[in-house]
Amino acid sequence: MNWNCEYFNPEIETLDRAGIKKLQLERLHNTLEHCMQSEFYRNRFAEAGIKPSDIKNLEDLRKIPFTTKQDLRDTYPFGLRSIPLEDCVRLHSSSGTTGNPTVILHSKRDLEQWANAVARCLWMVGCRPDDVFQNSSGYGMFTGGLGFQYGAELLGMLTVPAAAGNTLRQIKFFTDFGTTVLHAIPSYAARIYEVMCEQGIDPRRDTKLRTLVIGAEPHSEDTRRRIEEMLGVKAYNSFGMSEMCGPGVAFECKEQNGMHIWEDYYIVEIVNPDTLEPVPDGEVGELVLTTINREAMPLLRYRTRDLTRILPGECPCGRHHLRLDRMKGRSDDMIILKGVNIFPIQIEQVLMQFKELASDYLITLETRDNNDTMRVEVEMKNVNLDDYAALQALEKAIRSRLKDEILITPEIRLVPKNSLPKSEGKAVRVKDLRKQY
Ligand code: ADP
Ligand code: ZN
User: Fold this and answer.
1) C-alpha angle with apex 330: 103 to 231, nearest 5 degrees?
2) Cα(277) to centroid of ligand 2, in Å?
3) Over the stretch 205-249, which tens digit does the pLDDT of each residue have?
């Protein structure tokens, strides 16, 4: 492999739009024929009165009914497969943050293709075989562990399966093994920095860290810039989900301007989550994905619940695969308070603009005197908590900026560093204690 080449799969990565569409249609046809091996899709097609041969072009995809998380739950565990179980070699199950677990099966070929997609992403941000890649994801059922492990190994990096937690040990690995690339959830990257500071370790002086891959949870642009500044790295946004294999679905290139989604693996649609009609170009809606490079368990028009938009224009990196904007959150993460729709990321965007504030915050929704209220607790950096007047002024400023953004005036509580609960996996940002009527 030529290390100077910017692309891991040069031919596919630099395909022009016409080339991408041609490949997609070819792969879609194969996928649809193959899906007829699955009882679930055979029935779905019969109910909708369609046959694979009715799908003549990419627009015809819209004739196919959506597949939902509920379908995965209803057919739990193996009902959606399109190959015999004996040809499956691995399964992953989602953590079930929002209900029963769901299972995704993989064949040998699926795992190879998945590793290739991850390697492609890592190569794109400058990883080369002489890098040392440390993965602080949970292993096991969580796809961020094995997903990155196999991708990084395929690329040829020395790969450290550090797994989640034990921050002191993570930091020891950086220094002992010369880690240059780290994969971490954004909330955990900030935590690592705090512990480094406590230990008197300067990431720039004492480690070789250069690249950070952050994903798995929504985070704002300011959060990214903060983390880059703390650790002295370039941080790239990585998007994936168990249903679509895991990591490697969409990833930022060096331009750090939207995440290229690999269109030789997925057909992308953005729909209005209420009407399920396509949104006009460039508008935010729900991401719907069709897998066209998977054999054990292809998913057709899968409703991801993630809200995003397709960024307009060409990327200077030479890849024509569409770019997704930073995720706004999942439709199920949306808070409805007093009839106003609020995404936690909107609150984070405001908080991270205040340099006095650290990275962790918790939004609590409560019913008091029959009134639904929101409290935002946020950790401070090393600030004098005794300077009452200054704290009050800061609280007031945060309250007023939040009011502008979310149209609701929350109670603000500034708390000392490390006083909010920490989780090993994805950060818990919202606690809903409201009375249900
Ligand atoms: P679970 O569904 O149990 O949380 P997954 O690991 O499959 O387990 O989570 C996938 C979800 O994580 C995505 O649907 C999305 O909501 C979120 N996610 C993943 N990557 C990102 C990212 N880069 N930015 C924002 N959200 C992300
Ligand atoms: Zn690019």
Assistant:
1) 95
2) 28
3) 999 999 999 999 999 999 999 999 999 999 999 999 999 999 999
Mean of pLDDT values over 43-47: 98
For a mutational test of ligand 1's pocket, the pick from 146, 237, 239, i.e. the residue with the most ligand atoms closer than 8 A to its C-beta, is 239
Is pTM beyond 0.90? Reply is yes
Task: Give the residue-averaged pLDDT of 75-88.
Answer: 96
Q: How far is CA 199 from CA 68, 72, 167, 192, in A?
A: 46, 46, 11, 11
- Half-sphere exposure of residue 157, counting CA atoms within 13 Å on the CB side? 29
Gap from CA of 286 to ligand 1 centroid (Å): 14
DSSP 95: -
378-408 pLDDT, tens digit per residue, is: 999 977 778 889 999 999 999 999 999 999 9
Q: SS3 of 385, please?
A: coil
- Residue 260 pLDDT greater than 60, yes or no: yes
Report pLDDT digits (tens) over 324-371.
999 998 988 889 998 889 999 999 999 999 999 999 999 999 999 888
Q: Residue 94 — very low, low, confident or very high, per pLDDT cuts 50/70/90? A: confident
CA–centroid distance, 245 to ligand 1, in Å, is 12
> Measured between alpha carbons, how far is 156 from 279 in angstroms, rounded to an integer?
41
**Residue that the structure tokens 């300067």 belong to:** 202
Q: What are the angstrom distances between the C-alpha of 415 and each of 194, 365, 426, 430?
A: 16, 17, 21, 16
- The CATH number of 334-432 is which of 3.55.40.20, 3.30.300.30, 3.30.530.20, 3.50.30.50? 3.30.300.30
Rounded distance between C-alpha atoms, residue 284 and residue 44, angstroms: 28
At the fourth CATH level, the homologous superfamily of domain 1-332 is ANL, N-terminal domain (3.40.50.12780)
Tokens of residue 122, six digits: 């890592």
Pairwise CA distance, residues 299 & 69, whole Å: 11
CA-based nearest residue to 143, from 49, 215, 210: 215
CA distance 386 to 195: 24
Q: CATH 3.40.50.12780 region(s) of the chain? A: 1-332
